């Protein structure tokens, strides 16, 4: 369940003092938000689990960079970061592999008009990244990756295109390293194991 406003203020304050357990609580209690936003893009041709994994990176970035001095709720800030992270992934995938059609209908607006991927992504002259996202750099990645061993960290960097690595599929990483795809899958499941429970639950 999401934190109450009072609980959120207390937990954020603890995290700002360096309590990593508080950070984990913020992540756990906002997982439904990741799922909710990821499911809005589930007809783009990208597997929902990949969208959730990418969205979870946006959530953790939001928590890591949240500024309590600004008059904005964490959920509002996190929503933008999660959406931008997914959109960046879709843009990169579209540019590299041509798998995502810019004319693919994503949803309908309040008037019943189709919302296309191109409406959100824009053109090369109008990239979706705004000032908020520009300030969120790759080095603000979640602590879990930093705590991994060298090999595991390399796998995650390849999977999500971190630290200058080229983004790869699970199979591509497995073939590159000569290990099983199931091993790579287990690492990713650490990120999404809690999210799977919330796939069919609406945000309260």
Automatic annotation (TrEMBL):
Keywords assigned by UniProt, alphabetized: DNA-binding, Sigma factor, Sporulation, Transcription, Transcription regulation
GO biological process, one term: sporulation resulting in formation of a cellular spore
Keyword Transcription assigned: yes
Domain HTH cro/C1-type: 168-189
InterPro entries reported for this sequence: Cro/C1-type_HTH, RNA_pol_sigma-70_dom, RNA_pol_sigma70, RNA_pol_sigma70_r2, RNA_pol_sigma70_r4, RNA_pol_sigma_r2, RNA_pol_sigma_r3/r4-like, Sigma-70_Factor
Keyword ATP-binding applies: no
Gene Ontology terms for molecular function: DNA binding; sigma factor activity
Alphabetical list of CDD domains matching this protein: Sigma70_r4 (cd06171)
Stated role: Sigma factors are initiation factors that promote the attachment of RNA polymerase to specific initiation sites and are then released.
NCBIfam families for this protein: PRK05803.1, sigma70-ECF
Family per record: Belongs to the sigma-70 factor family.
Official protein name in the record: RNA polymerase sigma factor
Species whose genome carries this gene: Lysinibacillus sphaericus (strain C3-41)
């Amino acid at each position: 369940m999401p934190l109450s406003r009072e609980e959120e203020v207390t937990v954020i304050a603890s995290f700002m003092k360096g309590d990593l357990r508080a950070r984990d609580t913020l992540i756990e209690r906002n997982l439904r938000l990741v799922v909710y936003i990821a499911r809005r893009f589930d007809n783009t041709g990208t597997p929902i689990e990949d969208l959730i994994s990418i969205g979870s990176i946006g959530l953790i970035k939001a928590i890591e960079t949240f500024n309590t001095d600004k008059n904005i709720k964490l959920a509002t800030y996190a929503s933008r970061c999660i959406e931008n992270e997914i959109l960046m992934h879709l843009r990169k995938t579209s540019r590299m592999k041509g798998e995502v059609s810019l004319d693919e209908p994503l949803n309908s607006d309040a008037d019943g008009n189709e919302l296309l991927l191109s409406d959100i992504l824009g053109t090369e002259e109008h990239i979706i990244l705004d000032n908020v996202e520009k300030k969120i750099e790759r080095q603000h990645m979640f602590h879990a990756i930093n705590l991994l061993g060298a090999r595991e960290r390399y796998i995650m960097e390849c999977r999500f295109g971190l630290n200058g690595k080229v983004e790869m599929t699970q199979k591509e990483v497995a073939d590159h390293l000569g290990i099983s795809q199931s091993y790579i899958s287990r690492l990713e499941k650490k990120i999404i194991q809690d999210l799977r429970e919330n796939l069919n639950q609406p945000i309260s």
